[in-house]
Amino acid sequence: MEKSKVRKTEQIPTAANMMDRLPRDIVIRILSRIPLTYLIQLKLVCRAWRSLIQDPLLASDHFSNMANNDPSLIIQSHLPDRYQLFFTDLSHDSQGNLISKKPPCPVEQMFLKDSCNGLLCMRDARDRALYICNPFTRQSIELPKVNSPAQLGPLEFGFHPTTKEYKLVHIGKKYCPSNTNQSIVEQHSEVHVLTIGSLTWRNLGTIPHRFIRKASKVIINGRLHWISKPKKRYSLPSLLISFDLETEQFQEVPKPDCCGSGSGIYKCFHRLMILSGCLSISAYQNGQLGIWVMKEYGVKESWIKEFNIEASLPRVLRKPMLRGRFVVNPYPFVRVICSLKSGEILLEYGSRTLVLYDPQLETYKKLTFPEMPTWFKIIVHVGSLNWLDTPLNM
């Protein structure tokens, strides 16, 4: 009996000799479906496995498989533990309890700025240095600083699928004399671009648009998109502006008439997002959040209003604070984070609460995990094997 047991054990293939028994492309297909944290551990098995885990083909295949699933999230705590990062893939039980993990890469005193192809753009809170890092592979590179007198504005991270280049776009405030009246000073935006791998930023000059520093942006078709702010309080409605990461040109994109023809940004708050692969915009007005989707990119007539959501935190989820006789709702604004394959929509209320909304049943479910911060920043992020020396060419 003892000899029989030994022979059976010897016949069982182990992970270490899988590469000897199967073609490399088959091994890559198998590994591309394994959770990221396990792949990082396999890298420590031996030199052969280290080489395999760092194979750009595996990185691309794995990222494609993960991107086809429901979106994952990176959450950075602002309170109580500032700078702490959490990663969750939105798996949860019937009670709304998320499964979260802390990425192995320490991010002490680093602000989360943006995410692209599994890479994070971080800013050091002390000396304002910029970094591109992968929180799972523990790799990071420091970027050159922006040499500009313009005041700090939006900083966005993007990738163009044709040029295969990663770029950072910095938009700073700059005050210039008016073209019509030199005694009048107008606010413009000064644009600087850094191609990852280059040593210096390039100054593209100024553009006659104003961008909100904390405004939402999205990237689609190799273009970054923002909502520009009107120059004056009672001016024309805000515009939807795009920046082509290949040609480095700005242009206006038609947006829906979601707030009427005469409402400015002060009467209607806009946010951008990607829903089902389409450019989308949410418009907050009169206590309701309307979500519009551009079914055909660049075509104004293709904008369709698909959802209308209660903008304040639903009553079933409220834990109001009492001040005398008044009940104060601590989460007055809602932001759409992403959509799931099930058709549900992930909402964030006041940077304090995550809610999963089912538009078919019109139900709300609060999502949380044991270490859930009381105040946080959240972005969609797909963890990847994106090695900084050979970044993903998706």
TrEMBL record:
InterPro entries: F-box-assoc_dom_typ3, F-box-assoc_interact_dom, F-box-like_dom_sf, F-box_dom, SCF_F-box_component. Residues 16-66 form the F-box domain. It holds the Pfam family F-box. SMART domains: FBOX (SM00256). Gene3D superfamilies: 1.20.1280.50. It comes from the Eukaryota. CDD domains: F-box_AtFBW1-like (cd22157). NCBIfam families: F_box_assoc_1 (TIGR01640). This is F-box domain-containing protein.
